[in-house]
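Deliverable D2.4 — example input (structure tokens):
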């Protein structure tokens, strides 16, 4: 189903599929490569004047290149490419110039996150300049730059004013493991490479630019406390706006979103409610409006404010799926015109910075269709496709999604995303319960996802529960998950599974639980706590020992900061001494003898989040009593599968494992 207001249309589409002639032959599902190769077209960004479009383009076995489309002539030109790395993030500096960094997608890099390099080039391929060093072979141009910024330089994710050759970049403090700490802001000329240092108010983790592209807000986290500092302009000193405890229900906690004109700062906050909403805060007085500007019923606000000319003209938001609300009548009409041309997709508009720009970038997708990019000409009212992310996907073979809400055993409402395979009788299907990682994040949103749709294309129903501890659905659901690993969090997953059985979606004899990271932990504890519910389990990069997770390991480095170990982990997970008895009862390694079902395990040898020792010790412990354990180790991978070849290999193995245990071979 399409989220929210376009529900009726989707039901009609679904009924149409159900009424298709039974005699039609069912085509073979797309191969794993169609789902898990890198997208062939992605990262599209429109120029400030709306006359050009930049995007990453590639193909199987090929490096991602930076291409620019002239929207007047429809001509495409590759303006930057490398033989030993790929284009990653792209921004327009101004109407003429682009900035980008790189990432090698053909070499497993473990969990090293930095040294991406930094480059700039004109939209016609001219004035190419390397601005910062990168890991690997270095410069790819005629002469070596000797004035480059160091490896730890990174793009600021927020675009600046886009009206000069200057941008802001971050000088990050990075340890030997590639883990970033504090940020120092630099103003950088993308033509000359000249930089200017920006005064910072102590240690800073992130920055926010105002509508003129000036850094006016600094966000810091130290000793479990958030500090937000602001300034009126470049010539006035930084001053403290607020401080509050990083975790918990601090009544004065805010999350800055964007600057408006003058002293207006838009923030999200609870203000005594269960869900966060968007408020206007006056920086001169430090006071917040009593009434929110934007509230999403049943959801914490998550999204992006659209501000033009200093005025809030719209908002992109996430409820069960993405949506937009426009406050400007002309933009409301624009959205309506595009939705008429693309009636079966969610259509997210990206407006150029220029108020008079003729072209608008559109990202269109649905639950059964990966993202495609279009350009809409406002004068001609015409729509032209510029690229598909996954062109080999046939939407008729994908499964429709619906967000459902179930009641857990104690009455707590738990959201879940249900995906049912196409052209199947949705009764007593083999089902995969796919548990998200984190765990303190939101795991689902309506829309096409490679792993979910790969499973659905193979005939499996997929259930993704948002157990307590998940974020995005209110403080009550979030806080009720603290220190509940293996307990109420696990019960929510089991209760969601039982709901699917009671509703007739799942065959109770053919259910497999699966997940990565925390989802891997939940998979193992599901096999321990509910052996009669789950026929098998698939875990990758999963936590197996809570004490080891909290305290670390002398031989295996992990990426937990001292800040999180001291102020976050004890509240969210627990204390290894005070909670030793609970840790023992809810650690898979201590309960390994109770795991008797078939189990597929996969871990990365360079994982810094959940070091390899978690997987090795659990594998050995389970195999003492259970010979149905399959082990995969990707030596150079980190916390997840970075290389397409490894993703394809892993999911091909998952397909075979599921087929043997709950699929056609199991019947």
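Example output (designed residues):
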């Amino acid at each position: 189903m399409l989220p929210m207001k376009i529900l009726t249309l989707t039901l009609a589409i679904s009924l149409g599929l159900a009424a298709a002639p039974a005699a039609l032959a069912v085509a073979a599902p797309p191969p794993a490569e169609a789902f898990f190769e890198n997208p062939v077209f992605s990262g599209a960004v429109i120029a400030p004047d709306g006359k050009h479009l930049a995007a990453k383009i590639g193909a199987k076995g090929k490096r991602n290149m930076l291409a620019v489309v002239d929207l007047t002539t429809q001509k495409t030109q590759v303006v930057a490419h490398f033989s030993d790395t790929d284009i990653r993030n792209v921004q327009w500096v101004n109407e003429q110039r682009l900035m980008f960094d790189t990432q090698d997608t053909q070499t497993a890099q473990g969990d090293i996150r930095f040294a991406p390099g930094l480059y700039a080039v004109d939209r016609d391929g001219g004035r190419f300049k390397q601005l910062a060093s990168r890991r690997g072979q270095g410069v790819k141009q005629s002469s070596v730059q000797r004035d480059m910024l160091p490896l730890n330089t990174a793009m600021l994710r927020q675009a600046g004013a886009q009206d000069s050759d200057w941008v802001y970049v971050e000088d990050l403090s990075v340890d030997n493991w590639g883990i970033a700490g504090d940020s120092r802001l630099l103003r950088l000329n993308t033509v000359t490479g000249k930089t200017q240092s920006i005064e910072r108010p102590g240690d800073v983790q992130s920055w926010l630019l105002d509508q003129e592209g000036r850094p006016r807000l600094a966000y810091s986290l130290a000793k479990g406390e958030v500090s937000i500092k602001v300034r009126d302009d470049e010539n006035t000193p930084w001053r403290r706006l607020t401080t509050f405890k990083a975790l918990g229900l601090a009544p004065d906690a805010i999350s800055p979103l964007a600057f408006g004109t003058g002293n207006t700062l838009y923030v999200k906050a609870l203000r005594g409610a269960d869900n966060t909403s968007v408020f206007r805060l006056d920086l001169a007085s430090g006071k917040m409006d009593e009434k929110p500007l934007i509230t999403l019923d049943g959801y914490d606000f998550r999204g992006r404010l659209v501000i033009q000319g200093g005025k809030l003209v719209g908002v992109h938001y996430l409820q069960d799926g993405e949506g937009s609300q426009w406050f400007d009548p002309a933009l409301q009409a624009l959205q309506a015109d595009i939705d008429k041309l693309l009636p079966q997709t969610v259509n997210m508009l990206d407006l150029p910075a220029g108020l008079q720009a003729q072209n608008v970038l559109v990202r269109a997708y649905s639950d059964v269709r990966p993202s495609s990019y279009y350009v809409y000409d406002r004068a001609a009212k015409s729509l032209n496709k510029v690229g598909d992310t996954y062109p080999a996907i046939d939407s008729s073979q994908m499964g429709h999604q619906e967000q459902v809400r179930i009641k857990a055993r104690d009455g707590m409402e738990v959201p879940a995303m249900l995906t049912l395979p196409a052209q199947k009788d949705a009764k007593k299907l083999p089902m995969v319960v796919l548990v998200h990682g984190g765990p303190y994040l939101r795991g689902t949103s309506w829309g096409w996802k490679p792993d979910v749709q790969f499973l659905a294309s193979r005939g499996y129903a997929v259930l993704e529960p948002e157990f307590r501890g998940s974020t995005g659905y209110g403080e009550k659901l979030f806080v009720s998950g603290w220190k509940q690993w293996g307990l109420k969090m696990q019960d929510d997953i089991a209760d969601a599974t039982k709901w699917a059985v009671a509703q007739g979606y799942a065959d109770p004899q053919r259910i497999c639980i699966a997940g990565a990271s925390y989802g891997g932990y939940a998979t193992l504890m599901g096999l321990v706590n509910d052996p009669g519910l789950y026929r098998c389990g698939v875990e990758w990069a999963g936590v197996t020992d809570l004490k080891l997770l909290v305290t670390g390991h002398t031989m295996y480095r992990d990426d937990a900061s001292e800040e999180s170990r001291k102020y976050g982990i004890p509240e969210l997970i627990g204390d290894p001494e005070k909670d030793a008895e609970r840790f023992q009862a809810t650690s898979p390694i201590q309960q390994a003898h109770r795991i008797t079902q078939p189990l597929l395990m996969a871990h990365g040898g360079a994982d810094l989040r959940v070091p390899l020792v978690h997987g090795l010790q659990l594998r050995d412990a389970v195999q003492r009593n259970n010979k149905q354990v399959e082990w995969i180790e990707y030596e150079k991978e980190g916390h997840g599968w970075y290389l397409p070849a490894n993703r394809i290999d892993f999911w091909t193995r998952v397909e075979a494992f599921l087929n043997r245990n709950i699929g056609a071979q199991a019947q």
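Residues 328-389 form one domain.
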